[in-house]
């Protein structure tokens, strides 16, 4: 047979098949080729609605008659009896369609059944979309329009897929592929919008919100793409629908694990959606096929929509937004809600049956079996703490006697693990003359946390928060009790050890408060090891501890204990790979019958401790009555010192320092004196320790520095020197050196006075720098860089650490007067003095010797190469006025010599240049008398 294509200019595909009629009657069949089927349609660029067969040509007989249909290409085939007819079908696409032969009646019946099924699905979806849209008017929540949009998108897709779209609107079947792709894109976009709205993604970070809105916009943009390229739009919609399901699964799982109600309520619907997508994927890829499978998939989508609508509606009304109420709640309902919200539990006691009934929630809290507390009173008391049973029993008996009343108490109930919980009971029994009908109803509330907080507050009120030791209040209470019992002869005489850690503030400054607290904990544990159970160790505050001994009053044993305590505190502690040794000053006071109060006895212990501290660190002092008189004069002296400092009544004297080689005045040392109105002139040793204890040493040091630099500036104006200018030495205390703003203060003073470099010489004791060598090196380096000269004072009396000596940037080593004054008495002292001078020279440092009293001392020091001498041989400390007179005399003497030299040598340079080129020594300073 010869077949010609009906469409010119094409190269169509052909499908050839043969049909045979073995019967005696003519057979009429309908050949059906569906234009679209979801099965095996593919994901990317799927085949949408398109014609399948253009024409069918038989080998004999009449040409098959085309039938009109919007969903398939249909032809009526007539086969005569006994004939076999070959048909050549011209295909409209390269893909071979699925061909079926139908009996006309059977096909029409099947189509009617399908239309009925599709109508039911359309009706359910339409009603759900209308319901969700309409309910938004009563409950203005965004989740309703978002869910309604999903239902409307599904309704549009069903209308296109079921063929109703062409019946509703006058649109040709050739545009069905565009509508189908747009409907799929709209369904995918509405699903993403629903996920964004229901999970409230907009409340998250701005970048997440922006990303989701971009995703939603891209989804809706596919609807526009469907007009241009339906296959591409449909493929992207199917792929993105799977991506949306994956992202939604992750978000729902994340929110559900965090306890979000919305995510947890959406889990069943979303799981069904995941299953539906898996089935759709298998159908699209051709793993499943058949009319039943496709119909089930469509019905599954409707079921998902119904479940989503139910979830949204239930969640919206369950959370109270727009909930339907038939009227205001009754008083009983409000009381019930109040009880549930207050966290209390119902308690009931039936006096007639002697039975107690409590809420089952209490049994759960206690870990008991259900009904374990719904028992008689005696059985209920067995669950109660032994200390609370009798009191509770008496209260119930009192209610019976009074035939009603209120019951307010708290008690403890035992848990299954043996611990107890506190409960507060507030109950009332209505008056009733018949005791057997008496009922007591109330509320139980768990107050365990409140009770424990109260216990902690009570403990913290009388105990130190850091060490857990008794604080001052508890110590004073126990001490007062011990004094009272001792006065009544019921116990031993109490003894108090007052302990203060020496220089503990330096530890906090050097290592920080955290290390300081750790050391205090260690000290507390060390002290506690030496006490008996009846004794008391307390932390009075800061670095002060106190021990109350009542177990033993033997003086020998008390002294032995104090010595053990002192040695225990001296045991080194390793901090940051360094061993720190702390010492303590200990004052001991024994009750002698004169101490009436604990304040008196503790005050005497503190007086003894202060005596030990003033006598030197690491000492023990026992109180005696003479110390009290001395301490009473301590406070007035401190007040007078503060007043004298405010009024600038502290005088600064200056003792000359001479350069031994030329017998020339080199500088002065600033010394403090206090002309007390009743005590006379006090030397620095008499009030400097008091200033250090009271904190006045910082102000006193700043005062001395200011006075000394002002005087030095005036000296340079009176007696200027280009080389070897006059200097002034000022002693620096520990509080000054390690003060944070000390370096900046000295820098500003030097800049203000504009004195030559090296004019200010700071004298720092050897013991001071050894308290914190690393910090001292850093501060001394800064001071030297800013123009101050440094002198190591009292060398030979402290550590004399040669390993550290080369690290400190000192310019001068000041030898203590003890090495000089005993040089004539001790044969070894000159050797030591000579060694010190030689060592200083080896280190490149000059030496100042204190205590030069005689000509012999000066001669010996000059012979061993000592640079400077200071002592009464060269002059006593003098006032600023006397220093000015001395310098004026020296300046006048120098000018007179310059004039005489100028007359003797007319061609010589000026006197100032003569001194600078060949200096001559000035006359020697006066001897022991003042200048």
Automatic annotation (TrEMBL):
Pfam families per UniProt: 7TMR-DISMED2 (PF07696), EAL (PF00563), GGDEF (PF00990), PAS_3 (PF08447)
Family annotation (InterPro entries): 7TMR_DISM_rcpt_extracell_dom2, Biofilm_reg_signaling, EAL_dom, EAL_sf, GGDEF_dom, Nucleotide_cyclase, PAC, PAS
Superkingdom, natural source: Bacteria
Transmembrane helix is among the record's keywords: yes
Residues covered by region (Disordered): 896-931
Domain (PAC): residue spans on this chain: 407-459
Domain GGDEF: 492-625
EAL domain ranges (all copies): 634-891
Classification via PANTHER family: BIOFILM ARCHITECTURE MAINTENANCE PROTEIN MBAA (PTHR44757:SF2), DIGUANYLATE CYCLASE DGCP (PTHR44757)
UniProt cross-references to NCBIfam families, sorted A to Z: GGDEF, sensory_box
Protein's name according to its UniProt entry: Diguanylate cyclase
